[in-house]
């Protein structure tokens, strides 16, 4: 029984995240999407909202569970008895940060490995910050986020779409 954790801020979840969730859920018997309680970042969506949006977009994936975590990722991974952490790599620019994160986590808890999945090419430039930027001007975000959450994002910026 292999358990994976896919951690992130998911503010909001994008099609790029969903692509990684779908593919990682095939590699693990159980995949936990860990939503970070991020004290240092001002988020658009509250923690409960980010969890709810993720639950909505993964409702047809029986081996995917959404949970939130506070503190170190390796501690959360230990609590959950996870075998590996999953991170997506969109482009070479992600690599420097991701390798640092993976090495640090491995140094703190060598039992948990990090597995990298390369984001499908069509989502390789998509990020939550880009989605927030476009939505804040009322622009079209349909190519970047699941349809069922579009309205929630526009609402945050006072648009009724
Ligand atoms: O989606 P993000 O914001 O790029 O995800 C970053 C995340 C949540 C993976 C990272 O910030 C994290 O693991 N935070 C928890 C705190 C922690 O463990 N920090 C030490 C790692 S160097």
Write up this protein.
42% of the residues lie in helices and 19% in strands. The chain has helices at 15-27, 47-57, 73-79, 92-108, 128-136, 147-156, and strands at residues 3-8, 30-36, 64-69, 84-89, 113-118. A five-stranded parallel sheet has the order 3-2-1-4-5, sandwiched between helices. The longest helix has 17 residues, at 92-108. It is globular, with a radius of gyration of 15 Å. 4'-phosphopantetheine (PNS) binds at residues 7-9, 36, 72-73, 101, 104-105.
Number of DSSP E strands:
5
Distance between the termini: 43 Å
Structural class: alpha/beta
Q: In terms of quaternary structure, what is this? A: single chain
* Largest pleated sheet: 5 strands, parallel
Judging from the principal axes of the Cα atoms, what is the shape? globular
Contiguous runs where pLDDT drops below 50 for at least 5 residues: none
The distinct ligands, each listed once, are: 4'-phosphopantetheine
Strand content: 15-25%
* Number of helical segments with 4 or more residues: 6
Helix-strand topology string: EHEHEHEHEHH
User: How much helix, percentage-wise, in residues?
Assistant: 40-55%
Global Rg: 15 Å
Average pLDDT across residues? 96
Spatial strand sequence of the major β-sheet? 3-2-1-4-5
Annotation keywords:
6 helices, binds 4'-phosphopantetheine, alpha/beta, single chain, 161 residues, 19% strand
């Amino acid at each position: 029984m292999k358990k994976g954790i896919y951690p992130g801020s998911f503010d909001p979840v994008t099609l790029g995240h969903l692509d990684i969730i779908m593919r990682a859920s095939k590699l693990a018997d159980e995949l936990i999407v860990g939503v970070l309680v991020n004290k240092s970042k001002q988020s658009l969506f509250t923690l409960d909202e980010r969890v709810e949006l993720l639950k909505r977009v993964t409702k047809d994936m029986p081996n995917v569970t959404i949970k939130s975590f506070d503190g170190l990722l390796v501690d959360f991974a230990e609590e959950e008895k996870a075998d590996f952490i999953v991170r997506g790599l969109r482009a070479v620019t992600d690599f420097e940060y991701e390798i640092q994160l993976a090495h640090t986590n491995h140094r703190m808890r060598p039992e948990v490995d990090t597995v990298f999945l390369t984001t499908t090419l069509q989502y390789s430039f998509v990020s939550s910050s880009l989605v927030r930027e476009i939505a804040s001007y009322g622009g079209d975000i349909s190519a970047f986020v699941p349809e069922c959450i579009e309205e929630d994002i526009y609402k945050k910026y006072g648009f009724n779409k």
